[in-house]
Amino acid sequence: MLKDKLDNLRKNGALIHNITNYVTVNDVANALLACGGSPIMADDEEEAPEITAICGGLNINIGTLNKRTIPAMYAAGRKANELGHRVLLDPVGAGASRLRTETARGLIREIRFDVIRGNISEIKALAVGTETTKGVDADVADAVNEDNLSEAVEFVKSFARREGCVAAVTGAIDLVSDGQRCFVIRNGRPEMGRITGTGCQLSAVMTAFITANRREEVLESAAAAVCAMGLAGEIGFFRLSPGEGNATYRNRIIDALYHMDGDQLEKGARYEIR
Asked: What is the C-alpha separation between 120 and 143, in angstroms, rounded?
């Protein structure tokens, strides 16, 4: 099932407009290229709708939010909706500041998102106003684990139903739901949390996956992206040599994405559906 999603992306490609944060923009571009997509970055309000119009998908990431780029996010999102393009929101740091939280909620009110992808603290901040985000990282008190997994699955399903989209909550255990079904994914390595931008890369890669595949398969496409990124983290970690650290690990992950094919993804993906 997941094999086809990566194969379609490799075959069809996907030009993705990224309004993303400047901390990770280069890694986002390289991760997109590695998985078969193509990146373009534009965050000025004057050109954002025009750039979105020539793309197939839009990835909005609020990681380095500022007053100049917020209007561009709205303008690009409205144009993408008008054209029927895939749109993803990564509400980085929602709950950490009022500007981030209110901007994310405003975007959700005004723009129809196919996927909202964040960590559990960010999604809780958007859902119920519980603001326990640790900067841009999830608070340890919110972490999804085996003990609270059933409760977390129901929470993510409820959020997806309320927002009318696929909700992708990533962490030690990843949850991807359309409100009815939930993929519980156990790929990845804890060391991925020591690299800046793996979540930002995933959001861009996920936008490419959902753009290259059919709209009625957004859930499966989003889950395939999560599995692919997690599997790349596993492969990259085991290819590290003594003395290599997080800088090399970042490159190993992108290399693993570059070389991954559908068969490898299907074999390596570890998930269940609830």
From this structure: 7
